[in-house]
Write a structure and sequence with these properties.
It is built from 3 helices and 6 strands. With 160 residues, it is α+β, with helices and mostly antiparallel strands. The chain has a 6-stranded antiparallel β-sheet with strand order 1-6-5-4-3-2, covered by helices on one side. A hairpin with a 3-residue loop joins strand 3 and strand 4.
Length: 160
């Protein structure tokens, strides 16, 4: 593991308002489309609330919101190694989104996922790694961008 392998950082400029980007990150049918199987997902949008991400054959993930500051910041814990288990500080990474308006119709969306250096991955799920998420966030942000802009919402990343 390289020395920076604890933290994935990505950002994208989206031709949409910051409110639209917030909605794409926090509304059940939107999240289910750009970061799931296409079905609406369960979201209790408050600190301590739960969001269930459905990644088909890879599992359903019970994330826990840490920060909810509309339409600027959103963070949650995601225990990808433990499907159907509520994320906690000991079994998950922290995903943080920052939404920054650049103009009336252009927004920067940044994501940081951290905690890989201390993450214990269960046997049989070794594909969960810093390297995989480092690649995965590039695809996920491209998908969120296309979706928010109203372009082709076909999944860029594969969720099966």
């Amino acid at each position: 593991m390289n020395e920076n392998a604890d933290r994935v950082e990505r950002d994208v400029v989206i031709a949409a308002t910051s409110q639209r980007v917030w909605e794409v990150l926090t509304t059940p049918e939107h999240v289910g489309t750009w970061f799931g199987t296409g079905s609406p997902i369960a979201i209790d949008l408050r600190p301590g609330g739960e969001m269930v991400l459905d990644h088909g054959a890879n599992g359903r993930y019970r994330t826990v919101f840490v920060e909810v500051d509309p339409p600027h910041r959103l963070s949650y814990r995601w225990a990808e190694g433990y499907p159907d288990t509520l994320a906690s500080e000991t079994n998950s990474t922290l995903v943080e989104f920052t939404i920054t308006p650049l103009s009336e119709h252009e927004t920067r969306l940044a994501v940081v996922e951290s905690g890989f250096s201390t993450l214990v991955v269960p046997e049989g799920r070794e594909w969960i790694s810093y390297e995989g998420h480092n690649r995965g966030w590039t695809d996920a942000l491209a998908n969120a961008c296309a979706y928010a802009e109203g372009r082709d919402s076909t999944h860029i990343m594969s969720v099966q």
